[in-house]
Automatic annotation (TrEMBL):
Signal peptide: none annotated. One of its GO terms (cellular component) is nucleus. Residues 75-143 form the Transposase Tc1-like domain. Its main location: nucleus. InterPro entries: Homeodomain-like_sf, RNaseH_sf, Transposase_Tc1-like. It comes from Chionoecetes opilio (Atlantic snow crab). This is Transposable element Tcb1 transposase.
């Protein structure tokens, strides 16, 4: 098993201060929020050194990163164009850049360096150009309505419950992107062979569901 994560200078200073006031390992772990094993490892170093603040641990050199800034830019551009692409597909698509990079490493770079969230696509009705135009006109028409008028409105809708018709899978979203953009969503239709449920709600509460 590999060594634990390195402690920061601030964490080491906190542990050293608590050692000086007589706190034991469990108390230090609870106060600092650090893992008990990490605290035990550092207090042992202090004990071996004969003081509460031994020399700071040397920074690990580690293995050189296999992904350059250029590689990250290529990954970002391709995922922006194809949000559903997998890390394995990215590796296969870029053999010269990623031939020595594992799929797990590509996944970490997408998540940690490029801040892509990996999630199921939002479900969004498929609308025609005419339907989009009508919805926009509706919003503009009632934009200035007073709250008292909205209190008299009853909203109703229906939805389909089905176990088919979903492509499944997930998409990667870059930081600040719109999750409802067409390329990030899963298209839905209303009339599949399944159960249709109707419901309504208004200012004063919800209505009963009708199957």
């Amino acid at each position: 098993m590999g060594r634990g994560k390195e402690l920061t200078k601030e964490q080491i200073a906190a542990i050293s201060s608590l050692i000086l006031v007589g706190k034991d390992n469990k108390e230090i772990s609870a106060i600092t929020g650090l893992a008990l094993r990490s605290v035990q490892r550092w207090t042992k170093k202090c004990k071996d050194a004969g003081k509460a603040d031994p020399p700071l641990q040397k920074k690990r050199t580690g293995k050189a990163r296999l992904t350059s800034q250029r590689t990250l830019k290529v990954l970002q551009r391709q995922v922006d164009l194809e949000p559903r692409i997998s890390a394995k597909e990215l590796r296969e698509k870029n053999p010269r850049l990623l031939q020595d990079v594992s799929v797990r490493t590509i996944q970490r770079r997408l998540r940690d360096d490029l801040c892509f969230q990996y999630r199921a696509p939002r479900r969004k009705p498929i609308l025609t150009t005419l339907q989009k135009k009508k919805r926009l006109l509706f919003c503009k028409k009632y934009l200035a309505w007073e709250p008292e008028k909205w209190k008299k409105v009853l909203w109703s809708d229906e939805t389909t419950f089905t176990v088919t018709g979903n492509r499944g899978g997930k998409v990667r979203l870059s930081a600040g992107s719109d999750p409802y953009h067409l390329k990030y969503t899963e298209g839905t239709v209303k009339h599949l062979d399944s159960v249709m449920v109707w419901g309504a709600f208004g200012y004063h509460g919800t209505g009963v569901l009708v199957v």
